[in-house]
Design goal:
Strand content of chain B: under 5%
Number of strands of chain B: 0
Order of helices and strands of chain A: HHHH
Low-confidence stretches of chain B: 1-10
Organism (chain A): Rubellimicrobium rubrum
Protein name (chain A): EamA-like transporter family protein
Keywords (chain A): Membrane, Transmembrane, Transmembrane helix
Oligomer: heterodimer
Radius of gyration of chain A: 19 Å
Strand content of chain A: under 5%
Largest interface: A-B, 117 and 120 residues
Structural class of chain B: mainly alpha
Distance between the termini of chain B: 44 Å
Radius of gyration of chain B: 18 Å
InterPro entries (chain A): YdcZ (IPR006750)
Structural class of chain A: mainly alpha
GO cellular component, one term (chain A): plasma membrane
Helix content of chain B: 55-70%
Mean pLDDT of chain A: 86
Number of domains of chain B: 2
Largest sheet of chain A: none
Mean pLDDT of chain B: 79
Shape of chain A: globular
Number of strands of chain A: 0
Distance between the termini of chain A: 42 Å
Low-confidence stretches of chain A: none
Chain lengths: 145, 161
Amino acid sequence: MIAPVAMSILAGVLIGLSRQVNGRLSLTKGALGASFWNHLVGAIALALAALAAWGVSNGPLVPPGLSEAPLPAWAGGPLGVLFVAAGSWLVARIGAANTALLVIAGQMVSGALLDTLREAEGAPIRALGVAIILAGVAIPRGSKG
Amino acid sequence: MTAGPDPAAATRPRVLHVLAALGTGGLLSLMVLCNSTITAHANALWGSLVPHATGTLAAALALALLVRRSHGERTGSAPAWAYLGGLLGALTVMLSSVAANTALALSGTLALGLLGQAGFGLAADRWGLLGLPRRRATGRDLLALGLILGGSAILIFGAPA
């Protein structure tokens, strides 16, 4: 159980670390430039990994099911560009902890909203979670700066 | 995109920042929806490769259209490591998809990931890690942190199975 716990926490740390690294790059390249480099380097690394996986397996390079994925699912990339650019812009302005917490809040609340729109069960407990998160967002902070 | 991060403004989230950050989190929910759909049709590697590739194209296009306006005041060069954020993102996807398939399940992975993010954020601000501004957490910051993480835990663990 120790290994998965460590991996999960490490995944969270890496999210913060990559935002910090991209935030540093945004100081000289701009938020959009940082997002471009983030995606280019990630794409090259993943393409090499895909080639390596293709090399050891006997399967096709491109998974056959990919062409059947609905077209809107391909929008994840352009959305990611905005996501990384916004994160880089924010972390240099309001700090790493504020950025992380507010982005988490937005993710959780919008996820709960999507669940409600899809009529998933458990609406009352979702409303409670959302209310507590929004209370946290609404606390006035950092005014000494 | 007006002024760069001046030290005084860097410590205080304004309404614009809060709205931008909440919207950014909303983007993440949509991204997860898109990327997990690709993963379901292909596999986890392609579920990350596809958005990174289409994102590279989209960013290049946006830069080509906007670059003249945003070039203004930036000078100097970034250290080489600053270009490697994308490697961390690619690694994150692999780590979390491995962890989500263990006894922890997706909810435990998500919750621990939030703890990791919050902890890293506090440390990064405290010591000004990687060349970004330092910022000391206040009691109110910690209260907000507790509420946001607590509410998130309710959403993550309170969902009916």
